[in-house]
Amino acid sequence: MSDTPQNETSEDIVYTSKTEIACDGDGGALGHPRVFLHMENGRVECPYCDRVFVLKED
């Protein structure tokens, strides 16, 4: 069984090496206001688009 919740797809998860993330929804004019997120416990979810950012393991 995976640790990924059932409503998340691999498209909703972004792996990164940074702990501070900026998200604008990647939709251009159809996106959302840019928000800056600080990762805690190796994971953070955008409150607008529900995209999940996960800290890469080295």
Strand content: 25-35%
Shape call: globular
Side by side, the strands of the main sheet go 1-5-4
> What is the total tally of β strands?
5
Query: Roughly what percent helix?
Result: under 10%
Low-pLDDT runs: 1-5
- Total of helices: 0
Main beta sheet strand tally, sense and closure:
3 strands, mixed
What is the fourth-level CATH superfamily?
Answer: q5lls5 like domains
Question: Which CATH first-tier class would you pick?
Answer: Mainly Beta
Radius of gyration: 12 Å
Short key terms for the protein model shown above:
two-stranded antiparallel ribbon, HSP40/DNAj peptide-binding domain, mainly beta
Write the layout of secondary structure elements.
Layout: E1 13-16, E2 20-23, E3 35-38, E4 43-45, E5 52-55
Parallel strand pairs: 1-5
Antiparallel strand pairs: 2-3, 4-5
Question: What do you see in this structure?
Answer:
With 58 residues, this protein is mainly beta. It has one domain: q5lls5 like domains (HSP40/DNAj peptide-binding domain). The strands form 2 sheets. The chain has a 3-stranded mixed sheet with strand order 1-5-4, with no helix packed on it. Strand 4 and strand 5 form a beta hairpin. The radius of gyration is 12 Å and the shape is globular. The N and C termini lie far apart (23 Å). The N terminus is likely disordered.
